[in-house]
Design brief:
This protein is α/β, with parallel strands linked by helices and 398 residues long. It is built from 13 helices and 13 strands. Helix 9 crosses helix 13 and helix 10 crosses helix 13.
Length: 398
């Protein structure tokens, strides 16, 4: 449990952001106080700062099974995704290919960037998903053509946790001469990720999803793949990302990457067990509930549950008042009244796209916390359902 504003709170929103991993805050503070140099400077201070970047790059590379020289350090996952999509588009459009494919359940960082490419004359195809949120390789094969330059399909979905068959999809793209990018923001640090096994050309990740500070991330670019820098200026990151690097934050990224690599094998099964306990208890004690997404192929920490007869945000607020932090979906789209585009793409009924909550656990989650949450939810749901029925009855009477 976390103590916040002198109150004990339960945090189950790791997919939005994770608390920093052990050693991260100390590493950030140490670099801020002890390493004043610019990593691009050739004097001793600069070279010490550069060494911190090299350590972070090596740690990220080890986490995803990549050569360190192929890792571009960025200001977060969204920047990494933009560099991948826009960078490939600008680098390849002169060759005549102007078609990009993505899934309909991608994060907004992908979908909105693709809309920007459409305005520049690119043809965009969004792949459908089935009822569990999975992309079929056959669906991709049916839309790949000689004009396709890039395919971008996320590794694990941020709302439902479903893991896509990226290796199979990437093989199809490669056979057609197209590059393949995967948004691995929600999988890196939670499950083993190996860029060679996936067969992808580019992979983006975000540090704050697995215990690094906010505002740091990385894009892995397979050797030989050209990307056009989206930030013009200096020659940092081998001319792929201009601007002085956030040395302190990236040092924290390195610590978090090493911690995730060292502890994942032990923590992931425990987290999955707690998630399963949460689901079983909620479905057994609250009528009209169901799990959304593929329950056999998903990251271990994520559960998306629908609650019939209520609005998801009402239950979210009620739980927050009880000291439990969860979400309705992507933190980047919170505050919108629109239903989940992920659940819509899965073909779920309209009420279900609005009454679902995401529970995302992490290494610090305990069995006691899950017990508190699952014993708190039934009474809150029943209360909200009674209120909903009363409001509906008043509306009918008028």
């Amino acid at each position: 449990m976390l103590r916040y504003d002198d109150a004990v709170r339960i945090y189950l929103d790791y997919n939005a952001t994770a608390p920093v991993a052990p050693g991260v805050a100390d590493a950030v503070c140490r670099v801020l106080t002890d390493e004043p140099g610019n990593p691009s400077s050739i004097h001793a201070f600069g070279q010490r700062a550069k060494a911190r970047l090299d350590e972070a790059r090596q740690a990220v590379a080890a986490l995803i099974g990549a050569p360190a020289a192929e890792v571009v350090l960025t200001g977060g996952g969204t920047e990494a995704i933009n560099l991948a999509l826009r960078g490939i588009a600008e680098a390849t459009e002169g060759a005549g290919r102007r078609h990009v494919i993505a899934s309909a359940i991608e994060h907004e960082a992908v979908l909105i960037t693709l809309k920007a490419l459409e305005r520049r004359g690119w043809r965009v195809t969004l792949l459908p998903v089935d009822r569990t949120g999975l992309v079929s390789p056959a669906a991709l094969e049916g839309v790949l053509d000689d004009d396709t330059a890039l395919v971008s399909v996320m590794h694990a979905n941020n709302e439902i946790g479903t893991i896509q068959p990226v290796a199979a999809l990437a093989a199809l793209a490669r056979a057609k001469g197209a590059l393949f990018h995967t948004d691995a923001v929600q999988s890196v640090g939670k499950i083993p990720v190996d860029v060679t096994a996936l067969g992808v050309d580019l992979l983006s990740l975000s540090g704050h999803k697995f215990g690094a500070p906010k505002g740091v991330g990385a894009l892995w670019v397979r050797r030989g793949v050209r990307v056009t820098s989206q930030l013009t200026g200096g020659r940092q990151e081998r001319s792929r990302r201009a601007g002085t690097e956030n040395t302190a934050g990236l040092a924290g990224l390195g610590v978090a990457a090493r911690y995730a690599k060292d502890t994942m094998a032990e923590s992931s099964p425990r987290i999955a067990s707690l998630r399963d306990q949460l689901e079983s208890a909620v479905l057994a004690s609250v009528p009209g509930t169901a799990v959304n997404g593929d329950t056999s192929s998903r990251v271990p920490n994520t559960s998306n549950i629908s609650f019939d007869g209520i609005e998801a945000e009402s239950l979210l607020i009620a739980l927050d008042l009880e000291g439990v932090a969860i979400s309705t979906g992507s933190a980047c789209s919170s505050g919108t009244l629109e239903p989940s585009h992920v659940l819509q793409a899965m073909g779920l009924p309209s009420p279900r796209t609005r009454n679902s909550l995401r529970f995302s656990l992490g290494p610090a989650t305990t069995a006691e916390e899950i017990h508190i949450v699952t014993t708190t939810i039934p009474a809150l749901v029943e209360k909200l359902r009674r209120l909903t029925r009363r409001v509906a009855a008043v509306g009918v009477s008028h």
